[in-house]
Write a structure and sequence with these properties.
alpha+beta, 9 strands, 8 helices, six-stranded mixed beta sheet, three-stranded antiparallel beta sheet
Length: 312
């Protein structure tokens, strides 16, 4: 019981705590912003993107550049932006890791091959700390559009309250929390499925072990049970008593399983807090815990009662 319930608590709690931590991190990063996306189909048309170009908006246009690396030509993900305060045509802004990987510094030149095969020399104007919202390689949006007509903006980020209207009906506006939850939804489904499979297997084996232990205990106590029958107790009364005893013992085991899992789960929450930079507390998955504990308690009660009733 301790192992089966403890594993279920730890694994279910890990998934539930992660489901709180990572969207919270993304929500904190996007604080004060809303996202605009095409609902159901990828990509915002250029006319919609131009409509969304309000002060403070970020409307990234992703593309792929082939650049000379230390090990030969390398494909890198780049982002086109229309912010003239960050980058202009013929310029490129790199993150520190990207600049180190390419061996470039401010003032250097990057020969980049665009999607249409055109090679352009881009002057490195700045090397900035990594920022997921900006990108590692930033070039001018108009230059990306000129050389990559198939590039599409998936998501636009606008200051909250600055969304121009009316927008086309197929365009959805989400706040930071809703966007973070939607972005994590696929990972959440996958981890939930994996956790359910693992908990099912562990709880199944735990239930088998509980059943085997209950039957073995009934056989060991057959002399005591026979004495109770000889003293006038009915088989049904004996079976009910043993089932109740097993139920109490199994419930105590479930409580211990939860108790021993709380410190590791708290450690997991602490690690996620450090990794995401947000305050994360341990979250118990009550559904998983209740299912695992209930299954094992039920098996213990049934196996104990049946074992006591059939032991001679």
């Amino acid at each position: 019981m301790v192992v089966a319930v403890g594993f279920a608590v730890l694994l279910g709690g890990l998934v539930a705590t992660s489901a709180d931590a990572y969207p919270a991190q993304r929500t904190a990063q996007l604080a004060g912003q809303v996202t605009v996306e095409r609902d159901g189909t990828p990509g915002l048309p250029d006319d919609v993107a131009r409509t969304l170009a309000v002060p403070g908006a970020r409307i990234p246009l992703p593309t792929v550049l082939v650049v000379p690396g230390r090990a030969g030509p390398t494909a890198v993900d780049a982002v086109g932006t229309a912010d003239p305060g960050l980058v202009r045509p013929g310029e490129v802004v790199l993150s520190v890791p990207a600049a180190d990987a390419l061996g470039l510094a401010p003032g250097g030149f990057l020969d980049a091959r665009f999607a249409d095969g055109t090679v352009a020399g881009l002057r490195v104007t700045r090397v900035l700390p990594p920022d997921e919202r900006r990108g590692d390689v930033v070039v001018d949006r108009s230059q990306v559009r000129a050389h990559d007509p198939a590039a599409m903006t998936r998501t636009a980020f606008l200051p909250a309250g600055a969304v121009p209207g009316p927008l086309p009906p197929e365009v959805a506006v989400r706040d930071a929390a809703a966007y973070a939850a939607q972005e994590y939804a696929v990972d959440a489904r996958l981890t939930d499925t994996l956790a359910a499979l693992l908990v099912t297997v562990s709880s199944g084996y735990g239930a088998l072990a509980v059943a085997a232990g209950a039957r073995a205990a009934a056989r060991i106590r057959r002399t005591d049970l026979a004495a109770l029958v000889a003293a006038g107790a009915t088989r049904r009364r004996v079976a009910t008593t043993v089932a109740a005893e097993n139920g109490v013992a199994a419930t105590l085991g479930a409580v211990l399983g939860v108790a021993v899992s709380l410190p590791p789960l708290a450690a997991v929450a602490s690690g996620l807090s450090a990794a995401t930079g947000t305050a994360v507390g341990p979250v118990l998955d009550t559904a998983v815990t209740s299912a695992a504990a209930g299954l094992c308690v039920l098996v213990a009660v049934v196996a104990g009662g049946v074992g006591a009733a059939t032991t001679r």
